[in-house]
Amino acid sequence: METIDYNIEIWLKEAENTHTCGKSLADSIYTTPVTILLSGEIGSGKTTFLNGFSEALGIQEDIPSPTFALEHHHKTKSGAPFLHIDLYRLSGKEAEAFVEQTGEFEGFRCIEWTQHLSRLPAGPTIAISLEDTNRKQGHRLECTFHDVPLPGTARILAWREELELPHHISAHCDTVADLAVEFGRHILKEGTIVRLNALKVAGQLHDLLRFVDFPVEGSAQSDSPTEPAIWERVREQYSGLHHEGACAAFLRKNGFAACADIVEVHGLSLPPNERRTIEQKLLYYADKRVSHENVVSLEERFAEFTERYKGRAYMADADIWFGQAKELEKELFGKRPPR
Q1: 7: pLDDT strictly greater than 60
Q2: In 62-209, alpha helices (H)
């Protein structure tokens, strides 16, 4: 089974937090075209959120509050079109007819006042619902992702069994997944959008093809005395790739491109800042905090890594991941990581 719908909730204390939260959504986009659906009453923060999102995409102009103009067109810094639709003055069939007219689009389509629609648009969507609370300040934001599929637990377990993944690697994956979600919940409380379900799945799968990197000679790192025959077939299929790239290729082949994007960069170095997603950062960092099945500090993990792989060619890059992980730790959590 696979899942596509999942929710997160964030409490936003003030407009500045809402704007920052909108910016954070741009760091969690995995497919385009995509429709961003915004609902909430006047003053709930929809336009503030949308301005944060558009700013992060490189759009200089402010997105206006409800006006007589039903749509505005912009370009993101990557050149992708950005369409803003405002249904404040439309409802029912008029609203639906107008949205249908914009069904063929590329890039980003952002629709405000989607509560005026009796049915939501088809295709990949991310729904943002903002609600005033009884408190003096702040809003509750609910984000529902319906844009990319994720493999379910049954499928993950079936893959592990089919590939005869050693128990200790499965246990490592589960520890990394749980830790990544813990870190994700921490920054979620700070107003940053994180796809917790996608993060957990990516953690559970990040070392699914770890055996690709095992030395063939005397590589009895499986749960049986001899290496499983399927390992050699997988090595041949993904020849020339390390386990990160091989796992990403495997996931894309099975229809899970977003999960592949998160998994692919958890190795020695992340992509440039402008091309990193928040889930990539969290998985990369969590993986560097787990030795076997134990949560350790970056310093302890680095010491263990250098001892285990002493003399290997890629040890020349070990300082890269340690320095990058320390920078990432500070970026995500400041001076005090959750643990």
Answers
A1: yes
A2: 92-101, 153-162, 167-188, 196-205
